[in-house]
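thread: overnight batch results

M.L. [08:02]
morning all. the overnight job finished for the chain we discussed friday. pasting input first so we're all looking at the same thing
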Amino acid sequence: MATAKKAAAKKAPAQETAVAAAPAVEAPAAAPAKKPNAAFMKPMTPSKDLAAVIGKTAVPRTEVTKKVWEYIKQHNLQDPANKRMINADAKLKKIFKKDQVSMFEMTKLISDQLS
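M.L. [08:03]
and the structure it wrote out:
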């Protein structure tokens, strides 16, 4: 049994050096930077109900989502038990048509309010 331990002890460092001596794999060439999707960057005009939450100016979809989340957090509208659910106040109820929606459903409902 003692010889098996000695043999294993001798093999372990040899394996480490074999791994360390392996040639380094070169990283692939950097891909060209992706251009932002024009559809997301196009300014969209919010409906009257959505404008009450985010303002009347036309903004890209990404900014609409950010502004709605700012409103939700500012007014503490996330369900404390399940943070994925949004409790609608009077302004959001006009957009959502429900008392509570999931954050995933919210994006679709907001999209319907943009033109």
